[in-house]
Design a protein that fits this description.
- A hairpin with a 2-residue loop joins β9 and β10.
- α6 runs antiparallel to α7, α8 crosses α9 and α9 runs antiparallel to α11.
- This protein has eleven helices and twelve strands.
- The protein is elongated.
- The chain folds into two domains: 142 residues, Beta-Lactamase (2-Layer Sandwich); 217 residues, Histidine kinase-like ATPase, C-terminal domain (Heat Shock Protein 90, 2-Layer Sandwich), CATH 3.30.565.10.
- It is an alpha+beta fold.
- Strands 2-1-5-4-3 form a five-stranded antiparallel β-sheet.
């Protein structure tokens, strides 16, 4: 078995059953774990489950712990990364940044309680589901055996609410500030022609303000499986022009160039244009944030054999550790309470538009985010 992080070694089922019996025979431990109000389990020294409380079984729709005895927590929750290496949970490159496996490893190393945030993307009924947990790992010895008690408290709602509020108010204030500035300029203009120009600009800005509010409402609806997809005819170049026009109102676009690729495909196709705009705007925002002053971002689309692919490129390269976490909800390089932009791209682009959202990054070409749609 191979590994790129934690040890792949496992105990056989005989040792697992023996360890479980020792736990079951130690009444105070069994009662303690079962009394906890959140997901909890006991792992052996190889990070395998030897005991769990009813809360974990309920969350996995299991009747008994026997079906997950000997598996690791990421395997039980069906983390999308656990099959990347033959060693299973904890052994892939992505696992280097996993809050769960690192909490367990660190608690063993320092012989004390360790808590981490644990972001996980799970595959559930052909659908990716994102969770945010606070994991606590407590090492203890029972005779000559080493074990770890882990508990998982769900902080998904807290993380999502904090991120949504921060992003929502940040973007709303930016747009509202622009609108206020335009209105103040209008007050000081006597030329009626100029007044009409700025009134038109104010109308555009107010429309973008409404769009920001709709963005947040649609993201909430998408996460709750309540978002309705509405198909209509979309013209590729018109869509790109509208995206650029809207992006120019964001503070991250100041002193930066946004250009449409000279080889852009001019095609019409059917999709939900509002959702596609949300995806592309998030791509463009990310690219602008990663672009230096007077730098350039290029946006385009390609039409090829029944697919249309929209893309956004900037010249920066994404470091490997960020690449491995980039589509996780709540992950951000911009500080706490951020991290919904790339997650939103993936959620809307794949779950609702039925496309594929991905990126390519290297030192020569920079970073390009794509959404590929069947037309």
């Amino acid at each position: 078995m191979t590994t790129k992080h934690a040890s792949p070694e496992r105990d056989d089922i005989v040792k697992i059953v023996s360890a479980r019996k020792r736990i079951m025979d130690t009444e105070f431990i069994r009662e303690l774990i079962n009394s906890l109000p959140y997901i909890a389990a006991i792992l052996n020294s190889k990070r395998q489950i030897v005991f769990s409380n009813q809360k974990l079984l309920n969350s996995l729709n299991l009747d008994s712990v026997e079906s997950i005895l000997g598996v690791r927590i990421g395997e039980a929750i069906n983390c999308i990364h656990y099959k990347e290496e033959t060693g299973g949970c904890g052994t892939s490159e992505s696992c280097q940044y996993c809050g769960a496996v690192n909490a367990v490893l660190q608690s063993h190393a320092v012989k004390t309680t360790v808590s981490n945030e644990y972001r996980i993307t799970s595959q559930l009924n052909n659908r990716k589901v994102h969770y945010d947990y606070r994991i606590t790992a407590i090492p203890f010895a029972l005779g000559d055996e080493q074990f770890t008690i882990i508990s998982l408290s769900d902080i998904s709602n807290e993380k999502r609410r904090n991120a949504l509020e921060r992003i929502f108010f940040h973007d709303i204030l930016n747009t509202a500030g622009s609108l206020n500035g335009i209105l103040e300029i209008i007050e000081g203009i006597s030329d009626i022609k100029k007044v009409h120009e700025f009134v038109s600009l104010a109308k555009d800005t107010s429309r973008y303000l409404i769009d920001e509010i709709l963005d947040q409402r649609e993201l909430l609806a998408a996460e709750q499986n309540e978002l309705k997809v509405r198909h209509n005819i979309v013209f590729s170049v018109d869509l790109l022009k509208e995206i650029i026009k809207r992006a120019m109102y964001y503070s991250v676009a100041r002193n930066k160039i946004i250009a449409i690729d000279k080889n852009v495909s001019t095609v019409s196709f059917t999709t939900d244009d509002m959702l596609l705009k949300r995806v592309l705007i998030n791509m463009l925002k990310n690219a602008l944030e990663a672009t230096t002053d007077k730098g350039k971002v290029v946006i385009g689309c390609d039409d090829d054999e029944g697919y249309i692919t929209f893309w956004v490129n900037n010249k920066g390269m994404i470091p490997r550790d960020i690449q491995l976490q980039i589509f996780q909800r709540s992950f951000s390089t911009k500080g706490p309470n951020r991290g919904l932009g790339t997650y939103c791209m993936k959620l809307l682009g794949e779950q609702y538009l039925r496309g594929k959202v991905y990126f390519v990054t290297d030192q020569h070409e920079g970073t390009t985010f794509y959404i590929k749609l069947r037309v």
